[in-house]
Hints:
alpha+beta; 15 helices
Amino acid sequence: MIQPLTDEKPYTLTPGSDGLIETQTLEVSIGPQHPSTHGVFRMDCVLDGETVVALKPVMGYLHRNHEQLAEKMVWLGSMPYTDRLDYFNSMTNNWAYALAVEKLAGIKVPERAEYIRVIMSELTRLLNHTCVIGFMLQDLGAWGTPLLYAFREREKILDLFEAVSGSRMMCNYMRFGGVRVNLTDQDLVVAKDIVSRYPGFLDEFEKLLTSNEVLLARTQRVGILPKELAINASISGPVARASGVEYDVRKVDKYGVYGRFDFRVPVGDIGDVYDRYYIRVLEMRESLKILQQALRDIPQGPHIAPEVKLRNFKVPPGDGYGRIEAPKGELGFYLVSEEGGGKQPYRYHVRPPSFVNLTTLEDMCLGHKVADVVIVLGSIDIVLGEVDR
Length: 389
């Protein structure tokens, strides 16, 4: 028998007056370097046994001074920096910034450029939603297959992005007044081929996942975000729509040429992890509808407004906010141009969906087991470059 090192009596659990054993809570720090945290991010959890009684998101490890750097650069110089906000979705990041500047400067975008922007952005939505489902399933414990299926399809879209922009991920593709490079007939053929084959992949993906009994057991009634809380906390994107909030900036603002396309906005009933999974599946099917219409109707014409001179680009004095429905939610840029018109913004501020959507993480995790925290975080779909900036 091993003897104790001191004369102290060994610790024993003594039942209280109600017959229950009194226990202490345990503080556990998940991250910042942890495979489940989707980047350099920490969750400080307080656990009673394995049940979460408090949770605090701790961020700021990846702060790169994005907004302050932009205030010292010419307007166009910030475009490549927007790529790094959400490195999965550089095309939509570019569009949100370009849209804000165009509103401030009163720039009209040619029709062909508007269609190209829609095509690139909806392909980006397919890419993002496919991958986040793969990542979420990996968080749940389904190692390998769903994520590899997702990356298989992602490669086809990235190949097209590389052919058009010269880069697979940091595309730096959009410009004030249009896009940097026109789509060729061959590019459109490749895009149509991707769109025509994607429904078959989604059917395959759903057959693998949607009715899977392990997925259902681990995600249904887990991480519920009530509709009222989603609205009050300014949650947007698939996370809000999964909670029953029928709000999509593409429908509300009809920016670009979205007002010309027939598509619906899927909404959930409960707002749990399963709803957040399935909303993304439904949104991909709606994106395919938009892409079919855009690829069918894309007109001829210039890909950028010829009157916009980017070399000595200046913006008239004033302030403005431009926003889009990015794959993760509402992505907006608030810009101020100083008096007399400047070559660089006086104020540059980003409204990132990843950061805002994280604010309800504790509400979604309370009362669940610590193993569920990882799944709930994965269902929100964050990228730390956007959270910290």
